[in-house]
Specification:
Elements: H1 2-10, H2 17-43, H3 48-76, H4 82-85, H5 104-123, H6 132-161, H7 167-189
Helix pairs in contact: 2-5, 2-6, 3-5, 3-7, 5-6, 5-7, 6-7
Length: 196
């Protein structure tokens, strides 16, 4: 199934320079836009305390996901990348061989998106509970998570289409990132009633 999905997505690369440029943009440039959006989210917290709590959740989740779990798994299991396994795969994005599972990009970006989601979920203001104001306020903050998760998935698809990751690398990275974000949010916000 992994090979089938990989080869299916990889077929779109190499069709035209325009499609290859789109894959390259999504896999290489879009992550910078993602990071800019994250910085904007962190800076837009109303209080310095809220900014520090949000930053702490994001930092801890990325350290756990990318720095600890991903590197430990790669040390124990050095999965070859698709371009090492299949001859003639369209490798649009250049990358060093080895260390394919889990995708480091996916663990990193899913950890950030997840951290923002769980930060909003665990620290939303309590005084608006049950009112229509809370719904609008919550949706505004959930929109950040929806956009960041959407960008994460697009980046992952581009990395598969670009021939440098297996679909299971992307899925595994996203799951590790979300789990790490949940754990980090619990650690940072467990005694915090409101981080805004």
């Amino acid at each position: 199934m992994d090979s089938f999905l990989l080869l299916g997505l990889n077929k779109i690369s190499g069709i035209s320079a325009f499609i290859d440029a789109g894959i390259m943009f999504t896999a290489v440039i879009l992550p910078y836009i993602f990071l800019a959006a994250t910085i904007w989210f962190l800076a837009s917290r109303k209080s310095m305390k809220g900014k520090m709590y949000a930053f702490s959740v994001v930092l801890l989740s990325t350290l756990i996901a990318r720095g600890v779990i991903t590197e430990t798994v790669r040390y124990l299991y050095n999965r070859p990348r698709p371009f090492e396994v299949f001859e003639g795969i369209n490798q649009v994005v250049s990358h060093m061989p080895g260390g394919s599972f889990p995708s480091g990009h996916m663990t990193f970006y899913a950890a950030i998106a997840g951290a923002i989601f769980f930060f909003n979920k665990f620290s939303a203001p309590r005084e608006y509970s049950g009112s229509s104001i809370n719904g609008a306020y919550r949706f505004k903050n959930d929109t950040w998570s929806i956009w960041l998760f959407s960008l994460t998935i697009l980046i992952g698809l581009a990395r598969v289409a670009g021939g440098i990751h297996w679909p299971s690398d992307v899925v595994g990275g996203i799951l590790i990132g979300i789990a790490s974000a949940w754990f980090a949010a619990l650690l940072v916000l467990r005694r915090k009633k409101e981080a805004y």
